[in-house]
Specification:
Largest sheet: none
Mean pLDDT: 81
Radius of gyration: 30 Å
Length: about 425
């Protein structure tokens, strides 16, 4: 019965790794190109899936070829699991997605191990095959084989422990900053209203914590206490490890709309009463629209801040204004604003900006400014930097050129 369960465990591990690679490709292709948080999450799942495939190949496949390919070779990238988790969590909580010079320190462990691993990487495949045969014949060979100079300095067991220990530190760090933002940032409008993001991070970090702790315990008992049978029998740690792995890889499919750190758009759902239905089931007209647990308040805040900045503060008069600078001005995440204009207003930010500038120019003309100023000067005073841009935007918004607008107004065809 144990062998059957173990075989099922192995097949499930391989299936999860394949699905994890598929998930990472989807994230990198559809979201990583536009949002750094999506890129971090995609790389995180890609490395996690590769880590699982290596575990399957080395411990369970009994394939000399697979062991030759996966043993040691990709080990250096596993040191990126923790940093990618941290970068993703930070970008979601603070919208700080760009890496600074200090963030390069997170890559130091990976580069240190990569440098130490270079001699092994350039070792002939024939030699790697001999090592793989020894591992397939006796898994205990993993305890004694020294593939890098770091193994001589710190010992094989210390190197095996370094990766899960580092990953555990990053996981606890991410949980800490998440709890801190829940406590300190509860009045932060950009985050407090994103209930789905809070749920997602709770589930995501929770499953990752379960994975990390069980994996750390497995490696400690296997390589430090030298109890290798833990990896070859079904036990409590293996069950927790599998639960964490499954939870990590399937959780994104239950939170598809918040993986990118975006607010959810409130949609209306109307429940019509079928003809002949029970009158008691009829929903009153004023209650047909059911309020979902979507982020309507946050979207309303974005709308208010955007309109206030344009109408009251006249932000459009800033000639070099763009989405990034406007986001800083209204203190909202730029990718939230980009999503708002694309999905809610159905209008690019630049078109909205030019529309505000054109309306300002039109009002100046209606106020008689064209009597003392040229049309080009009015365009420049409205935030445009070139005559052609002003004329093109004016024609698109008003349907006529600025000169024609002035002529119509002068002739009395247009009124304020």
């Amino acid at each position: 019965m144990i062998s059957f369960d173990l075989a099922f465990f192995n097949r499930m591990l391989l299936s999860l790794c394949i699905s994890g690679i598929f998930l990472s490709v989807v994230l990198l292709y559809f979201t990583g190109r536009n949002f750094a948080s999506g890129m971090y999450l995609g790389v995180f799942f890609l490395i996690m899936s590769q880590y699982g495939m290596t575990q399957y190949a080395v411990l369970y496949s009994k394939s000399v070829f697979l062991v030759s390919v996966f043993f040691i070779n990709p080990a250096f990238i596993w040191y990126l699991i923790g940093p990618m988790l941290f970068f993703y969590t930070r970008s979601v909580l603070t919208d700080k997605s760009q890496l600074s010079l200090w963030d390069l320190l997170h890559f130091v462990p990976m580069f240190v191990y990569l440098i130490a691993e270079i001699p092994w990487l350039f070792t002939s495949f024939a030699y790697k095959t001999e090592v793989a045969k020894a591992i397939v014949n006796n898994a205990a060979y993993l305890f004694e084989f020294k593939a890098t100079i770091l193994s001589d300095w710190f010992g094989v067991n210390a190197l095996y422990m370094s990766r899960p220990v580092l990953q555990s530190i990053y996981t606890l760090w991410c949980i800490f900053i998440f709890i801190r933002y829940l406590y300190i940032g509860r009045n932060s409008t950009g985050f407090a209203n994103q209930r789905f993001m809070i749920k997602w991070l709770s589930v995501f970090l929770g499953f990752h914590f379960l994975f990390v702790i069980s994996n750390l315990a497995l490696i400690f008992k296997t390589f430090v206490l030298q109890i290798p049978e833990l990896y070859f029998t079904v036990n409590v740690l293996q069950i927790f490890f599998m639960a964490g792995t499954i939870g990590l890889l399937i959780s994104p499919f239950f939170f598809p709309s918040i993986l990118y750190g975006l607010p959810r758009y409130p949609e209306s759902i109307v429940k019509p009463v079928a003809s002949g239905g029970n009158e008691n089931d009829r929903i009153p007209e004023e209650k047909k629209v059911i309020q979902l647990n979507l982020e309507e308040n946050y979207l309303q805040l974005i709308r208010q801040k955007t309109e206030s900045a344009m109408r009251e503060d006249q932000a459009y008069l800033v000639t070099d204004l763009n989405l990034q600078k406007f986001a800083e001005r209204v203190q909202l995440p730029p990718h939230h604003l980009a999503w708002f204009f694309r999905e809610i207003r159905k209008q690019p930010f630049n078109d909205y900006l030019n529309e505000c500038r054109v309306n300002h120019a039109g009002q100046m003309i209606l106020n008689g400014k064209a009597e003392a100023l040229t049309v080009e000067a009015i365009g420049l005073m409205s935030g445009f930097t070139t005559r052609s841009t002003f004329f093109r935007a004016f024609k698109k918004t008003k349907g006529v050129t600025p000169g024609a607008f002035v002529d119509h107004f002068t002739n009395g065809s247009l009124t304020s």
